[in-house]
Design a protein that fits this description.
The protein is of the alpha/beta class. The protein contains 13 helices and seven strands. α7 runs antiparallel to α8, α7 runs antiparallel to α10 and α9 runs parallel beside α13. About 35% of the residues are buried.
Length: about 375
């Protein structure tokens, strides 16, 4: 037994397999965001302060954020983007440009100045959370923004109490109440995931059964046809056409059956059944063609490639790219074909998008290339036994 090369290579193969499958676990262990895109809108009009002139606290905050972002060193957790108006911000949130946003209203400086008077009015800051883009990343951005405002509150409270103490000014009850939390934070969810959506991971939840069903369909059709005896290239091409037609039929069954099962049996919220079903059908057919093309090239053993993609894809698809390591983001996530499925479902579920060409253009070209490969392989005849 010990003279067998395969037996001697078993420990090495075991270690290689361990490394491969460990790569699917590493991204989910303590994910740290880097350059998480967050927008900031400064609408503050400033205020005139006696003996000090015009002061714009919002502008000072933006300038401090800009200076902090220009520091040389490790990648910051937040990548700030200055946006000119609320209208432009909402457009960027709908285009999935930002996970969250910080809005400084026009009366921010005026209200902050009033905290030193007998009639204090708490300044407010708005935090918008783009839930539908990625629930985990948006919540993390929300926590970081809330923590930043808490630090501003502590700093502002200390400064005001110090000024009042130095000027020996008594503090009224209304001032004391206002200074407990000087800045009021108003949270707002945009493109919200709603209830019964697997905490915003409904697209990822639908991916796994769809991928397995498409894999099984392609493998079954390939094995069934592969046992047939073919006598000519014309006959072989005809058989390939039959495979593609059967795959198209199976894709519609998967595309319409999956949202029906998810909605009626599981209770998942499907905002638009028809748009979801058509998108899933088109994407399933694209995946079917890719798998069939690889099986035509490599034989049934090629199914292992797509099983590995399932293991690698499942943990990564629920994460924001900015929360992955550069290795996983560049060499694994960007090459996963199923990410187009999850991204498209997010647009339908949380951003009100309807089924359109833009949603399936990438899948179309992937499927078209796969069809070309399938027919090229049909021109090759196996030797008769």
């Amino acid at each position: 037994m010990f003279k067998n090369k395969l037996t001697l290579a078993t420990p090495i193969l075991a270690f290689v397999i361990l490394i491969i499958f460990s790569l699917t676990l590493f991204p989910t262990v303590n994910p740290t965001p880097e350059n998480l895109p967050v927008a900031i809108v400064n609408e503050d009009e400033g205020v005139e302060v006696p003996h000090q002139g015009s002061i714009n606290i919002g502008g000072m905050m933006v300038e401090n954020i800009r200076k902090a972002g220009n520091k040389v060193g490790d990648e910051p957790p937040i990548k700030w983007t200055e946006v000119e108006s609320r209208k432009e911000l909402l457009k960027g949130l709908d285009n999935q440009d930002y996970y969250a946003a910080l809005i400084i209203p026009k009366d921010f400086s005026e209200k902050q100045a009033s905290l030193k008077t007998k009639r204090p009015v708490n300044p407010e800051i708005e935090i918008m959370i783009n839930q539908g883009m990625n629930a985990a990343a948006s919540n993390m951005a929300n926590q970081m923004l809330t923590q930043m405002v808490d630090q501003l509150n502590h700093q502002l409270r200390t400064e005001i109490f110090t000024d009042l103490k130095n000027s020996d000014t008594p503090v009224s009850v209304s001032q004391a109440e206002a200074l407990a939390d000087p800045i009021v934070v108003n949270h707002q969810n945009v493109n919200a995931v709603g209830e019964n959506s697997a905490n915003g991971n409904a697209p990822v939840s639908l991916f796994q059964p769809l991928w397995i069903a498409v894999m099984a369909s392609a493998a079954i059709i390939f094995i069934a046809v592969n046992k047939m005896t073919v006598h000519s290239r014309k006959e072989n091409i005809t058989i390939k056409v039959g495979q593609i037609v059967m795959g198209l039929f199976a894709s519609f069954i998967i595309g319409f059956g999956l949202p029906w099962l998810a909605e009626d049996l599981v209770g998942m919220d499907i905002p638009s059944f028809m748009d979801t079903a058509l998108f899933l059908s088109a994407t399933s057919f694209s995946f079917f063609l890719v798998i069939l093309a690889v099986l035509s090239l490599l034989g049934i053993k090629g199914i292992a490639i797509f099983a590995l993609l399932l293991f690698f894809g499942a943990p990564l698809l629920s994460m924001a790219p900015e929360m992955m390591s550069s290795f996983h983001q560049t060499w694994i996530y960007s090459w996963l074909p199923m990410r187009f499925l999850v991204e498209g479902l997010r647009e339908v579920f949380y951003f009100g998008q309807s089924f359109s060409w833009d949603m399936i253009s990438v899948q179309f070209w992937i499927g078209l290339v796969s069809i070309v490969v399938i027919f090229l392989m049909a021109l090759r005849l196996k030797p008769k036994k």
